[in-house]
Design goal:
Radius of gyration: 34 Å
Strand order of the largest sheet: 2-1-3
Shape: elongated
Strand content: 5-15%
Helix content: 55-70%
Number of strands: 7
Length: 307
């Protein structure tokens, strides 16, 4: 073996002494002590391999070789040392992330949320706590297979930066208040939704309680193309419903009808228009301006009352 692939992906020359030193450090933690013949034999076995291996692959071979020999206690000590070194690397990674937040050098976090200013101290404190939560979640709270799947991109574990407190970022939002009264995003008022739709992706035994409530259901596992097609179908159905609603004349309240009637009477009095002509005038103003009939009638009254 000529080269080794480090954890950061770089390729460096193979160094047999590093394997020997690591095994012998593990041996010092066992009753048998150091046996240079064993450490060198394993290192020679790896050195004779023709492939280019990663550091993790080499460490796996070391553990397997020790387990299949009379030195299984060394294998356990080596695995513990390996785990300890991994924890140190994770802590160093977390420390680096926190320092990048303080120095505003972490582009991923700086651009993560347009509602948060990464230069404000309180926001930086929130982000730093998030990095600690990610570290704790990865090392202690999630099963290893979930962590591996997340890091490989097979799944996405959401809100690891809040999960240490057994909550999610969405839990910080008062959903009832937002749905009833609207909300403000980037200093822009967002009105309360007139309606919304939900797509549930779950096993079919979860569907019974949802379909009667107007929730669209899709079975797991689901392919990306099927998921996109389902969402597009929901959007098209929503567009058709909105067009149908717009095509139906909206029933006006008595107050709104009075505004239109007052504007008509004002036009009939000031411009000698018939009732039909006054109505068509307000209607044309509404169509030309894009305003509602009530808004156009209010504008007409404002203009003529000032004259």
């Amino acid at each position: 073996m000529e080269y080794v692939i480090k954890r950061d992906g770089t390729k460096v020359p193979f160094d047999k002494s590093k394997i020997v030193n690591a095994i012998e450090k593990a041996m010092t933690c066992t009753p048998g002590g150091i046996d240079a013949r064993v450490s060198n034999a394993i290192a020679d076995y790896i050195a004779d391999m023709p492939d280019i291996l990663s550091v993790e692959q080499i460490q796996d071979i070391v553990v397997d070789s020790l387990k299949n020999s009379p030195f299984s206690d060394v294998a356990e000590a080596y695995s513990q040392w390996r785990k300890y070194r991994q924890e140190i690397r994770e802590k160093e990674k977390t420390n680096a992330s926190i320092l990048d937040i303080i120095d505003i050098r972490n582009d991923a976090i700086n651009q993560e949320n347009s509602n948060k200013n990464p230069t404000v101290n309180s926001v930086q404190r929130d982000y730093m706590a998030g990095e600690v939560s990610k570290d704790i979640t990865k090392r202690f709270l999630l099963p290893p297979d979930i962590v591996d799947a997340h890091e490989q991109g097979l799944i996405h574990f959401h809100d690891a930066d809040y999960f240490a407190q057994h909550m999610h970022n969405c839990c910080l939002v008062n959903l009832e208040d937002m749905l009833q009264n609207g909300t403000v995003i980037s200093e822009t008022m967002i009105d309360k939704p007139k309606s919304f739709e939900m797509l549930l992706v779950a096993s079919q035994n979860r569907w019974e309680d949802c379909q009667d409530n107007g929730i669209v259901c899709a079975a797991m596992p689901i392919k990306v193309n099927d998921l996109v097609s389902t969402i597009e179908m929901m959007l098209q159905a929503q567009i058709r419903r909105r067009r149908k609603l717009r095509s139906q004349p909206r029933k006006r309240s008595p107050e709104e009808q009075k505004i239109i009637d007052d504007a008509k009477h004002l036009l009939m009095e000031r411009n000698n228009m018939s009732e039909q002509e006054a109505f068509r005038y307000i209607q044309k103003c509404s169509m030309d301006s894009g305003n509602t009939m009530v808004e156009s009638a209010t504008m007409v009254m404002g203009i003529y009352q000032d004259v």
